[in-house]
Amino acid sequence: MRVVIVGAGSVGRSIGRELIHNKHQVLFIDKYADEAKSQSVPNANWLLADACETSTLREAGLEDCDVVVCATGDDKVNLVVSLLAKTEFGVGRTVARISNPKNEWMFDESWGVDVAVSTPRLMTALVEEAVSVGDLVRLFQFQQGRAAMVEITVPVDSPVVGTAIGDLELPADTVLVGIIRDDLPIAPKPDSVVEGFDELLFLTTPSSEPLLGSTLTGRDLSEVRTVRHDGL
Length: 232
Prior knowledge:
This protein is an alpha/beta fold. Helix content is about 25%, strand content about 25%. The protein has a six-stranded parallel beta sheet with strand order 3-2-1-4-5-6, sandwiched between helices.
């Protein structure tokens, strides 16, 4: 797979090293990259130019790459490059970093972004996931809001404690994908029984989150708090 990474900061270089280790071809585009940066990923190709210029992207051969990763710390640059990659060069997949979560609403298909990754949001979700019991925590959102991965640590007084997985009445478009119990992952089976303090991982839709939270806690829909991190 040929991958073009825009931005050779610590994030971009870390991604590049992992991809090269996994036998992929990597080209960095960064007009500020110096010799020290290029030497830190010696097996990558480098283009010292402005990625917001179509002439630079043409020189990089974007039309022949499989994925463009926009990893700069500037949200404006990441959006512009994603849009150009999609509309001008027909790149199959774009991944864009979000530095300011307030800009998250722009990182969607209208700007050519297939996958948006917000580091602050992910870190906040992981913190809340570690300390919250009885709250539905959205860990990750897929495909511009059409699906999400959510987690809940089941309180001991939950109505589903003692219930077999196969007997859970889950909302539509909701799938239980994993259980973490005593820090160990467990594959959910129909005869597995839910225990207090189990961490349940679901794939669901945003519209189903309130009903899912209500089912798992026994609280009214209006009382269920869903931690979403939007607009931080």
